[in-house]
Amino acid sequence: MILLGFFALGDQLVSTAAVATFIGFILMFGCAFHLIKVFTTGDWKSHLWYALVSVAYAVAGYVFIAHPFKAAIAFTLFLGWAILIGGIMRIFFAFKMRHHRGATWILFSAVISIILGGLIISQWPATGLYMLGLFLGIELIFAGVGWLGLGLSSAKK
Prior knowledge:
Elements: H1 2-10, H2 12-40, H3 44-66, H4 68-96, H5 103-122, H6 131-155
């Protein structure tokens, strides 16, 4: 996983395209499952709902597969706003629980999220071309380090 993470960081453009395409295939699977639900649900209102959701999944999946960079750019803007808003919400939460000893950690993470979300949004649409690949690479490295650390600590006993 660590090596894959470094490969992902080495070519973030390709990694971003791979992540966007993978998301597209996941959405297509979601479309298929909702289509199955259309034919297995007895209520006509449920048929309509599952059919509409299925179409939405199909359209989104198609866009992610056929136009991975356009989809990644749009998704990155959504991701930037989600991180920014999450940080703002955690600031309110940190002040609400300010009497707890660990509240400053919540406040610290909130400030980092606001900075990160602001950076993603302020540099958009350029961030859309590499952000998903960057996040994938970082995630793979930290996950690999975690598993490696667990394995090494288990081997000592």
